[in-house]
Amino acid sequence: MDDLKALAEFSARIGSDPEQVQAGGGNTSLKLDGTLWVKASGFWLADATKSDLFVPVDTARVLDAIDGGDEGDVRAATIADKNPAGLRPSIETSLHALLPHRFVVHTHSVRTIAIAIRKDAEARFAERLQGLSWAFVPYVFPGLPLTRAIRDAIDSRPIDVIVMGNHGLVVAADDLDAAAALLGEVERRLDAPTLKLESAAPPSRAGLRPVRHAAANALAHHARLRERAAAGSYYPDHVIFLGPAAATPASCRPGQHLLLVPDEGAYLAEDAQPAADELALCLALVLARVPDDAELIRFTAAEEAALLGWDAEKYRQSLTRL
Questions:
Q1: In angstroms, rounded to a whole number, what is the distance separating the alpha carbons of residues 302 and 293?
Q2: Which candidate in 73, 80, 133, 176 could, as Cys together with 65 as Cys, close a disulfide (CB 3.0–4.6 Å)?
């Protein structure tokens, strides 16, 4: 089977699993004869077999941008004559180029994030990932800053697993089956008890609609989940698609898109896009795996503002509305 076709089928599988990838998050890639084929920004991995969403970029030019360029240089590395739709490569293209493996898989695994948002995250990962070739990188702004932090952290070591604080997971291999197996092994090691997320459908509210996933309503019904959801935001896509923290009737501020009404349900604006529903579900799945005694790292107001003001994310949001 053609490697790119195989990658598309694998991408569609993990993209359809809300515990791995949500909405337009996550990205996969293949290096082939000097070209890096990477998921297009804003598109959903779940659609990888339905449309051509892999963008060809010149690997060498991206590597040059890591050393001394900017995000514009990364986008300029797109091979235009092989990209007739004019798609923009993933925000994390430079990360995919940095790793020498043929296949790179970046997910927003809820099992990973549930640990990666903890203050003791690195120690917890060290316990679970012993024996694997792995590295932990505390939160860094996505794109080139994150790629450069990873480059410095791995320092030319052969690393197959990267855990990014308050962000997600990367696995890489020269064979797609090996990458899939490694992803499964990491998921198995990071698995943890989870709360049972069940709740009744909430009543109607003017100007709002209930979240589409019933499990997300548990954020409103479970006091600890509600408290943590309202306390802040924990990973980039949370900020991009749900805004800074969840609102409650007692505490609302501009830019919050998810409203939690205690013992009633979780709501979004009537015109909220599907991506918001997927991230509301992700938030419930993540927080349901966090022990009650865990101390969490929340984004600062400055970190939230940086994400919300980033051109690359505004572009991704615009595509999510299609």
A1: 27
A2: 73
